[in-house]
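EI: anyone free to look at a 243-residue chain?
SC: sure, send it
EI:
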Amino acid sequence: MSTLNIILLTGRQSEAAHDEGEYPQYLCEYKGKPLIHTLIDNCAVLQPRRMICTFSNHDIARLHLRNMVPQMHPSASVLPVHNITRGAACTALLASEEIDNDDELLILSVSDFLDIELQDVVRAFRERHEDAGVVIFNSLHPRYSFARLDSDCRVIEAAEKNPISSHAIAGVYWFKSGSLFVSAAKQMIRKDARVNDNFYIAPALNELVLLQKRIGVYRIEPNQYRPLKTDSQLHAFEAGEMR
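SC: here you go
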């Protein structure tokens, strides 16, 4: 069985500290359980070696996350983000010491909730002998990342917040090895491929395309994807409402 590491990205770090009575989105509760706990439970079926959860240093201290997170799963750990990063790719690279190796890597965003079995996704990519893979759904809203596909349903181009196709990426990225992601992300940063002054994960896939790597897709229905990026979306999620 392949060894897998997982990174759970808790979104863009904010300069503004939360007030004492406020809690970040990853602690919104669904069926009495914080979102981050639900996501860790969903990932646990993959039997990962590590689940690396990125949090701002301020939140770690204020919310005692070093005590909380390891109780959610033995492989779950906290990675402090000391400063505002230049986007999700830079945040993920903070885990380079633990992921720059031959272990598989799965990167998930806490602001995207998928009503699917992650085991099915990873199994599909493994069985097709992909080098990388993304989960996609049908949308043209420019808030998302997008993938352009060839006739074999493999990614030949990726873009951030630019609907180059109707194949929106649902915030799930799988790599056959962590080192593959690390090298692609670093190359993207060397080329200064920013979007809105930030480095996102989707454009790093273009570096793999240039290396003629196989990037597969796993398609889900739009109603299986629930973005948790606005207050109204978070409130609906907490209330257990489906769209």
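EI: The mean pLDDT is 92.
SC: 👍
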